[in-house]
Design a protein that fits this description.
heterodimer; A: about 475 residues; alpha/beta; Aspartate Aminotransferase, domain 2; Aspartate Aminotransferase, domain 1; 7-stranded mixed beta sheet; 12 strands; B: about 525 residues; about 35% helix
Chain lengths: ~475, ~525
């Protein structure tokens, strides 16, 4: 057990120093500094917390606990569903660990924080290129909260109170949107999909429009992995109703997919975790938020935005936080959002990732993912009793696998796969009861041909 | 061996924007080649993609080798300042040292490679860590249970105010309980969060002692009161000694008491918000529990609640039956989700290791030394000409203190902003300035427990030198900083609609007048 005195993180806990400082203040006991705390609230009994440990013991303890986990190192894993496995180049990690970035606060003093400001400006700029938008903020918490904020933003801009969303959406994203929307009086309406290809039903969309529709939100690729290809029609429809088009993206697709800025998106949200950030059991993530160069949109944008400027003497270029009058520390209850701390370091990691890959790398990434995922689709669809995918649409990196004809539940299949040291896809049978026993599988550039073949062979064996 | 004079110079690379670097065709990373067999089986990708959905325009990203990318960002990092660089007395931000072992543990593949939807049998280790962390944080805050989901303090506040909403709704009183009461010294996030959750904000003024005035509070409370959001110790670093009466008044009116945990550090293992009557408590993991702030995040903002509010917390809840850890989604009264998955796990793991390293006594020591350090600075700074300590300068502060540079400004024209900028010239971060708004020319100073006496003494010397300089040669202070990567920036230009440039695209489109220091 470590003595509380002389703790390595607390230099002034050293007896002599402490005494000297107490003398300087003129106190005999530290408790004199707590005199204004009502006596009854000062803890009398020690709290039920562990005793302090040495660094070595902490390391062993945490490593031992973490080693109880099984990861893709131990078993090929075909899970994504909003948090995806991708390779992170060593240089990304190396830069994100630079302690000048890692241990700094929000750049309130820009002159001594040019490094993080420029890195974040570059993140914003590269995100704009990927999405084909002009403005991006320097991050939201994650995709789900970004959708919530985008809905509120659209409601403020249009003065309307309804948001249309696709029925095929990540349930956690929909739940988050509801939590953000409800207090603002925003009503969220679902638009149904076509059963054969999963595409948004334009018929249902037509019926859901009203003079109170602030925006329609679509995703590309969709939660279930297929590409929504009626984007031009939906965009036209939205703008004809003077509503906004909000598009959610997985940016790893944007090296090969038409970017939302090219089909009229007004606001883009999404998840940039796959660009250089580890899964970490689901967090931290990296929410994308971008919009067109239009003051009526920009003024309503939540979150921190880094801008280009010059020194006061005009001599040099530099960067600082901009448009802070939108934010809580100035505008208080009238702010566009309460967000301040965001996911800045994850954004820096993503900037390094995008810079390393460049235009060719991002195109290759998109192609490689699509090749491998579609390879898996082809192999799996040969298995008797398995339907892959459920929807006749192009799929990017995720796809549905249905086991109804095998007379097995996803749960049973996954249990059997686990026994064979494979982790199957996410069970979505409760999220979409109409799709019966269906799982959502994910294949990215890190899955090898052998692993995919092994999955197919094992599934065949399990089902037979 | 030491230099008597200040020789600090921050690195000042003339580093262009990354779009101005590299050459067409250069690669910084190469992906594994897709197997020929896979290509053959799948056929042409273009055939799979509907024509209308193909990217036709080439991505306009920079093209750099790995060497150039690393050099670029390394140079940028050298033009940044972190807690590891030196003293960081940014008030209300609790910029304490970030132990290195915690980063090492957060970088382990056994965490990094975990997908949140893995079978529970494969994630028992991380669930155990999170479950225990919840219990420890509940114990530290004196709350019944803790939710780890919020990604930041403000996100915790949003959850907290949504819980208030859920509580009053369940009681059928949401229609009439429209007001959240907030002191004028509160963080801006409090009113912003209350407003996001659909409440109106009622501001109560502070009294002469810098605390919530009981008379003003009684006048503000009504049958419309949904709750009070309070920071204790408050943003002046002063403990709200009337907390008993405050809690009584709010609870009497049927409101909930919300604790803004930004200033929890001085209370660790000394006093618990739950014991003082707070119903909802958020914590800032990146403040109190030492996790690095990453230049703006990721943080984590867990929320603890009293027993009555537990049923409203977001799903899933982590359960333990004595043998197995599991995730429970079956909570019919839950407000649902405020984000995907279960929280900023890599950040929370660091907090787990931090609590383990310090233990109960270490945490108490951290609290006490943070208060000792702040009061030591109060004692030393009080005698400096040009500065005053508003709101009863004889009263002990807790973890931070707020000085006013108003006399200095009146005497010399040197403002709190100028003092802050001049501090940077010494290789020290500036205090928070102009907050709380109830102190004119505020310098809000929080030393935390992790800086040694010598560094605190140096801080005092620097402040003294700057104030003397203001009286003797104000020019140097007014034009500061001089030793940072760049001199004072034109922040008005950055936000003006005519010059505002928020991306490389906008920069090119607006064809901003190029400055001398080309190209950047």
């Amino acid at each position: 057990m470590l003595k509380r005195r002389d703790h390595p993180y607390i230099p002034n806990s050293q007896t002599e120093t402490k005494k000297q400082m107490m003398q300087e203040i003129g106190i005999k006991s530290i408790n004199e500094l707590y005199v204004d705390v009502p006596e009854k609230y000062l803890l009398k009994k020690p709290l039920n917390l562990p005793e302090g440990l040495s660094e070595y013991e902490v390391k062993k303890h945490v490593e031992t606990l973490l080693s109880k986990n099984k990861t893709s190192k131990d078993l090929p894993t075909f899970l994504g569903a909003g948090c995806w496995p991708h390779y992170i180049p060593a240089a990304v990690q190396n830069i994100a660990e630079r302690s000048e970035f890692l241990t700094s606060y929000t750049p309130y003093q820009p002159e001594i924080s040019q490094g993080i400001l420029q890195a974040l400006f570059e993140y914003q700029s590269m995100m704009c290129e990927l999405t084909s938008m002009e403005v991006a903020n320097c991050s939201m918490y994650d995709w789900a909260s970004a959708v919530g904020e985008a809905a509120r933003m659209a409601a403020r801009i249009t003065g309307r109170k309804e948001i249309l969303i696709p029925k095929i959406i990540h349930p956690e994203r929909a739940a988050t949107l509801n939590a953000y929307a409800e207090p603002a009086g925003i009503i969220v309406k679902e638009v149904s999909y076509r059963r054969d290809d999963g595409q948004i039903s334009l018929q249902d969309l037509k019926e859901k429009w009203s003079s109170n529709t602030a925006a329609v939100y679509i995703e590309n690729p969709s939660y279930l992995g297929f590409i929504e290809s009626q984007v031009d029609e939906i965009s036209k429809e939205a703008h004809a109703h003077n509503a906004l088009l909000i598009v959610g993206v997985d940016p790893t697709s944007l090296g090969i997919l038409k970017p939302p800025g090219e089909y009229g998106a007004d606001i883009v949200v999404g998840e940039a975790q796959p660009l250089g950030n580890a899964m970490n059991f689901g967090g931290p993530l990296l929410g994308i938020m971008a919009c067109r160069d239009d003051m009526s949109l920009i003024r309503q944008m939540p979150g921190r935005i880094i801008g280009f400027t010059t020194t006061q003497d005009g001599d040099r270029c530099g960067f600082c936080m901009t448009l802070q009058t939108r934010e809580q520390h100035i505008r208080r209850e009238k702010a566009t959002s309460n967000i301040c701390s965001n996911e800045a370091l994850c954004a820096v990691a993503s900037a390094v990732y995008m810079a390393l890959l460049g235009p060719e790398g991002l195109r290759e990434l998109g192609e490689t993912i699509m090749y491998k995922a579609n390879y898996a689709i082809q192999l799996l669809s040969k298995i008797v009793g398995v339907k892959v995918p459920l929807f006749k649409s192009a799929h990017f990196k995720e796809f549905t696998v249905n086991f109804d004809n095998a007379r097995l539940s996803v749960k049973q299949v996954n249990e059997r796969l686990l026994q064979h040291h494979i982790h199957g896809g996410k069970d979505i049978s409760r999220e979409f009861p109409e799709l019966d026993q269906t799982a959502l599988y994910c294949v990215t550039e890190i899955h090898s041909k052998d692993e995919i073949q092994h999955l197919a062979e094992t599934l065949e064996e399990i089902i037979a | 061996m030491r230099n008597e004079k200040n020789t600090f110079r921050q690195a000042a690379w003339s580093e262009p924007a990354i779009f101005d670097l590299g050459k067409s065709g250069r690669r910084g990373h190469v992906l594994p080649v897709v197997d020929e067999g896979v290509r053959k089986t799948v056929g042409n990708i273009d055939r799979l993609l509907p024509e209308s959905m193909r990217r036709l325009s080439r991505l306009k990203l920079p093209e750099l080798s790995e060497v150039e990318v690393v050099r670029h960002f390394l140079r940028l990092s050298q033009m940044n300042y972190g807690v590891d660089s030196g003293f960081y007395p940014l008030g209300s931000c609790t910029m304490k040292y970030n132990p290195k072992i915690n980063d090492l543990l957060a970088g382990l593949p056994d965490l990094n490679l975990l997908n949140p939807y893995q079978d529970e049998s494969t994630v028992q280790g991380i669930l155990e860590i999170l479950y225990r962390l919840e219990r420890w944080l509940a114990e530290i805050t004196g709350t019944y249970e803790v939710c780890l989901h919020p990604a930041a303090g403000a996100h915790g506040e949003l959850l907290g105010t949504l819980l208030m909403r859920a509580f009053h709704k369940a009681n059928g009183e949401l229609q009439r309980r429209t007001d959240v009461i907030i002191p004028d010294s509160a963080h801006g996030t409090n009113p912003a969060s209350a407003s996001m959750a659909g409440f109106s904000v009622i501001v109560v003024p502070s009294d002469d002692e810098g605390c919530v005035g009981l008379g003003a509070l009684k006048a503000a409370v009504s049958k419309r009161t949904a709750g009070l959001m309070l920071t204790n110790p408050n943003t002046l670093g002063i403990f709200e000694k009337n907390i008993d009466e405050i809690a009584g008044i709010v609870h009497e009116a049927g409101g909930l008491l919300y604790y803004d945990g930004a200033n929890l550090n001085p209370l660790l293992c000394k006093v618990r918000p739950g014991d003082m009557g707070f119903d909802i408590v958020h914590m800032n993991i990146h403040k109190t529990f030492s996790t690095p702030h990453g230049g703006g995040g990721p943080g984590a903002g867990p929320v603890g609640v009293c027993e009555e509010l537990g049923k409203f917390l977001p799903i899933p809840r982590i359960m333990f039956d004595g043998k197995r850890y599991s995730l429970n989604y079956d909570k019919p009264d839950s407000i649902g989700k405020i984000r995907s998955f279960y929280g900023n796990i890599a950040v929370l793991l660091r907090a787990y290791a931090y609590i383990l390293a310090l233990g109960r006594e270490g945490l108490e020591e951290a609290a006490e030394i943070s208060v000792l350090n702040a009061n030591y600075l109060v004692k030393k700074l009080k005698s400096i000409r040009g500065l005053t300590l508003p709101y009863n300068d004889a009263k002990p502060r807790k973890h931070e203190c707020v000085f006013s540079a108003k006399p200095l400004k009146n005497d010399t024209g040197v403002s709190a902003l100028n003092v802050a900028k001049r501090m940077l010239d010494y290789g020290m971060h500036a205090p928070t300035i102009y907050f709380p708004q109830i102190v004119e020319e505020a310098l809000m100073i929080e030393p935390t427990e992790t800086f040694e006496k010598e560094e605190l003494d140096r801080f005092v010397e620097i402040i003294e030198e700057i104030c003397q300089e203001a009286y003797g040669n104000p020019e140097a202070v007014l034009k500061a900083p001089h030793n940072t990567a760049i001199s004072r920036l034109d922040e008005v230009k950055a936000s003006h609609p005519k010059t505002m440039t928020l991306s490389w695209r906008m920069y090119q489109a607006r064809n901003i007048q190029q400055s001398k220091n080309q190209p950047k």
